[in-house]
Amino acid sequence: xxxxxxxxxxxxxxxxxxxxxxxxxxxxxxxxxxxxxxxxxxxxxxxxxxxxxxxxxxxxxxxxxxxxxxxxxxxxxxxxxxxxxxxxxxxxxxxxxxxxxxxxxxxxx
Length: 109
Known about the structure:
Elements: H1 3-24, H2 26-45, H3 51-86, E1 89-98, E2 101-108
Antiparallel strand pairs: 1-2
């Protein structure tokens, strides 16, 4: 992995951590649930002739779900990038003696 790719992975890791903070936030969860359930109540309370109101409420619920889905996607990308970066051998190599020659081993890190 070159330096540009490593920089990109580190940015994705940071974005994933930020998304996790939002998703784990009690106030976000509460706000999301209150707004979503409000639109669901509006949708459920519509009559057969209130098509526009019902469709608007449905679109709002879908949009809220898309926002949460985007945060989950950013979190997942961050986790995958973290796994990729963790799999890169450390630049620091250690040397071990074995008989008359040296064996080079890489330490993860």
